[in-house]
Amino acid sequence: MSLNYPIHDETTAPEAARPLLAGAKQKLGFIPNLYGVMANAPALLDAYFKVGEAFQRSSFTPTEQQVVLLAVSAANGCGYCRAAHQAVAAMQGIDAGVARAAAEGQPIDDPRLEALRAFAAHVVETRGWPDEAAIEAFLSAGYSPSQVLEVVLGVGMKTLSNYTNHIAHTPIDAAFQGAGA
User: Which domains, ranges and CATH numbers included, belong to the chain?
Assistant: First the structure.
């Protein structure tokens, strides 16, 4: 069964989502299809934005943040988010090889970033029950115990969008086409 969620904009969305979409359009120049789908449940869209803002305030660098988000999206099989975050990574000047490897669930040449990618994927694959060896490998790469929990924050953020895209079959925006999927 397909639910056929409409992809809203700031004029068609439920009232509570309209200012959120208008803000996104002002910031990005367009409303990504994911946001238009999430607008069907304004509380989801609001939560996604708030969790995303919190993740941006984490101790991870922009590159590390994208590695987490791409690794989670790869582990969850979300083509939309893999394409979107590869495009974001390119806009942020992040090494394309790093972004591509994370998006494909493949090892990253940089050992520290690889430890982060592997740990984020492991958290998803174990449904939040990482084994001691995975935690130790992450910590041994120079990350801290608080960053273990910040990975959980990134997993939570991407779970909201990955699952929305799985359910809604969100079409990849033209702005993200060719960025990978």
Answer: 15-55 (1.20.5), 60-168 (1.20.1290.10)
Q: What is the dihedral of CA 50, 55, 59, 65, to 10 degrees?
A: -150
Opening angle at CA 161, ends 160 and 167, nearest 5: 95
pLDDT, tens only, 69-124: 999 999 999 999 999 999 999 999 999 999 999 999 999 999 999 999 999 999 99
Distance CA 169, CA 163 (A): 10
DSSP 8-state code for residue 94: -
- In terms of C-beta density within 10 A (0-12 exposed, 13-18 middle, 19 or more buried), how is residue 175 classed? middle
Closest CA to 165 of 76, 52, 68: 76
Residues 79-90 pLDDT 10s = 999 999 999 999
Burial 46-82 (b: 16+ CB within 10 A, else e): bebbebbeebeebebeebbbbbbbbbbbbbbebbbbb
First to last CA, the chain: 24
Give Cα 141 distance to the centre of its chain.
22
Instruction: Find the radius of gyration of the CA atoms of the chain.
Output: 16
